[in-house]
User: Fold Long-chain fatty acid--CoA ligase from Streptomyces tsukubensis.
Amino acid sequence: MLSTMQDVPLTVTRILEHGMTVHGTSRVTTWTGEGEPLRRSFKEIGERAARLAGALRDDLGVIGDQRVATLMWNDSDHVEAYFAVPAMGAVLHTLNLRLAVEQLVWIVNHAADRVIIVGGSLLPLLVPLLPHLPTVEHVVVAGPGDRSLLDGVTPAVHEYEELLAGRPATYDWPELDERDAAALCYTSGTTGDPKGVVFSHRSIYLHSMQVNMAQSMGLTDQDTSLVVVPQFHVNAWGLPHAAFMTGVNLLMPSRFLQPAPLAEMIESERPTHAAAVPTIWQGLLTELTARPRDTTSLTQVTIGGSACPPALMEAFDRLGMRVCHAWGMTETSPLGTVARPPAHAIGTDEEWSYRLTQGRFPTGVEARLTGPDGERLPSDGRSEGEVEVRGPWIAASYYGGADGENFRPADRFSDDGWLKTGDVGSISADGFLTLTDRAKDVIKSGGEWISSLALENALMAHPAVAEAAVIAVPDDKWGERPLATVVWKDGESTDFAHLHEFMAGEIAKWQLPERWTVVAGLPRTSVGKFDKKALRKQYADGELDVSKLGASPLD
Amino acid sequence: MLSTMQDVPLTVTRILEHGMTVHGTSRVTTWTGEGEPLRRSFKEIGERAARLAGALRDDLGVIGDQRVATLMWNDSDHVEAYFAVPAMGAVLHTLNLRLAVEQLVWIVNHAADRVIIVGGSLLPLLVPLLPHLPTVEHVVVAGPGDRSLLDGVTPAVHEYEELLAGRPATYDWPELDERDAAALCYTSGTTGDPKGVVFSHRSIYLHSMQVNMAQSMGLTDQDTSLVVVPQFHVNAWGLPHAAFMTGVNLLMPSRFLQPAPLAEMIESERPTHAAAVPTIWQGLLTELTARPRDTTSLTQVTIGGSACPPALMEAFDRLGMRVCHAWGMTETSPLGTVARPPAHAIGTDEEWSYRLTQGRFPTGVEARLTGPDGERLPSDGRSEGEVEVRGPWIAASYYGGADGENFRPADRFSDDGWLKTGDVGSISADGFLTLTDRAKDVIKSGGEWISSLALENALMAHPAVAEAAVIAVPDDKWGERPLATVVWKDGESTDFAHLHEFMAGEIAKWQLPERWTVVAGLPRTSVGKFDKKALRKQYADGELDVSKLGASPLD
Assistant:
């Protein structure tokens, strides 16, 4: 029996056409730092996207699935590129402007980008890289910036507005297959080369529907979303696409991500929703405490990237901004969970504990836990394992391995095709995820897992400890055991036996570290996290002065 | 460049598995008319669906895409069939128990149903049909009803609960293709044979996501939906599937669709949402006016099937139940539009006019207008044409034509594959649909359209007119012209020239009818609408006494 349904592909083109017609009066407002913000309706953006596609095709000769990169802040030009490039059949490659220069060069070359659209203010970052980017034939400059920096560069240089001015406001968008590549984003992993995730039209479409479900972000044309999360960071969590589906107005901060301008744009543009990482939101709180503003419009804040400290959540609750955790990664498009408490918990003591989880899996994201020996663990809210996920907007592989084919490293994908997230935690029976560690940081001791984070939190609760990192080190008997690395507070210290005893109230005895070391400071990654990879190397190279408190508690 | 995304099919199985785990404590509550309602959690329903699938496969031998029909009211057993049958790979065929007996027989034979699951209270309807249903090998009886009616019937008879008791609470659901057939529903068209629409897993999944979008019904696990719209009526507008996606509790009225029990279940079960057709909702208003109840929980009512009279909407507004129009048909799964006013209209005089439209097209439903001569008309809020739609949950054909293949009648599908809805109206620039007539009732006069509804409304505003129907009749010069058919109120009458003049204030002169007839009563369809097909036949057969008021106004 054959279905009688139409076989209409799920494409970015449909999202664009819907947004620019049905929601043609919704707007993208871009903060300019001085004077009036730049306001463009979805209809204008759609027309400008058509002009951009025409220019890319006819002036720059972009064909097929060639890559068009963006090196841009969040602004309406960037939204135009979000739609024009995939809808014309090419692939949008958003470049993370915070990456190390070497990584940017590696990524552009790996993706073989033919065109880079660059925000004028980012020319000082781009221009020195150009000699190392042989595939880049065209640079298109949008917005204010010093063009003279481009004098003498090899690629052809174009003005964004001039390109658009020369082309019609309509484009004969091709019919695409929904499984065609639409956008490319590289993970900024700390191990090995960056890895490319290629989103399909289908995955973007389905992810956007999910973002718009009431159980998820649930925004409508009555909302204005302040998109602090960068557009180069996993499609700004899908908000531009989701917005064109339901007419959500977008407020784009451009490069003005400092607390003062953020507070100013909230007061004057009155967004109802914001999406940000905790660090930036913490800064905003400090600003609002020092100089209160009218932020009453903003009632819903989606926080992702890492967990929001409870104190920060409480502080924002008091301001009327309800923080809602979301969890995900480049490989999950990124929305993997959203922490909306279940109905029965609302208004009870349980509500808070649900809000502190990473969130609940939506339809479309199946999740399971795998233990240290690859065994399946139950979703019972207690068992801890590596989180594996499956779904139509979850990655199955990475782009372009050594042989040119997409590749599936065994540490990231299970034999049956699920993504290994690298996150360790538990899943409750009602689908809430609580993370306890990263898989690469967890200590695998005698077939059981010890959370490095739990040990670090217990250590840092001691008044003499400024910082602490716990890493796994090899152990003949147990496979791995924890090594506690401690930084004393200025003028403070104590002995390891005391710390060991101090932690014993919190931590199971067999999990307590017997190896200890003191360092002056902990190495950090580019995003400010403890660099445990560097620490593991220091240990392996014998650079740490390790004490041992007798045998393992298990011996 | 190949996408790196997982290729996970969108299936009813995924919806079931998500609902019974993540939302396992949400409930389906079935009204029983006396005593406590029957309450089952989504987890129980999932387990019972597995038992049902096991029984259908192993006891009844259902394989492949064989059809399993349901002749049932809205209840939790019916929800189990909704999931079990498609998830096992078979096709759920919901039988409309309000159809004429001949149509039911035709439909069951056309679908070649192998099994019918029947609500016990509906045995008096089913049993007399069985001798005419040669493909039906098994009858499964669920819920209370007189089993002795089945004595001596040819198909094997089974008790629903006994089948379930004999099977395990898990089932090894097959991996299905998302384009596989999942459910079958016949349109009860007034012209020709009923036509079967076969929903795919994909279309059901996408439609359910759309239902759950905040811009649409936007329900969450905090909601309880009173599903008055029958499950045999286009999948109860997708609510059971949508509910399992986000944990919406379902309140099922079973056969208790009378105003008093509806009022009672609203008061005692406190639903937050209801979905119904205007007729039933009108009855509820009368009941609530006579005997007020606490209906404060119920704030959102989706009304479809036909437009809700403004007076009814206002009356429900006063009760705190906000009525929201939705429009669609079997061929659109059915959600084609939802009348949520745009942000700019909320709180203004415009809000009401938006609420009176049929609603706004969501992402996933593209719409266009076609004029009398097949020309494309603009979506400008003024041009009127037949509404054509396209999208992944819109029909492309009907099931099983004469040659066994799915077929595409030219009056229902355009050459380029869009569905011709048979509805005539306008579409505003911001995607709101306003219907003015059915395409088969509109009068095509000299290349222009005249709305039969507009003429009828103008006529019925006259104090002497009880009812009026206007049909198209052949005209040598103009192709078609309107014939006005009038029923006088008891003891009242006037002459046609006066009525003609009376209408002239409302209706353009060239649209006014010159042909007039008086009848004692108008023929009606099974659902109570004027039967214009019968009227056109009476005219063709010369059975009407037609007067002509001079020449056409256009001559």
Remarks:
- The two ends of chain B are 65 Å apart (CA to CA).
- Residues 42-58 of chain B form the longest helix (17 residues).
- Chain B has a mean pLDDT of 94.
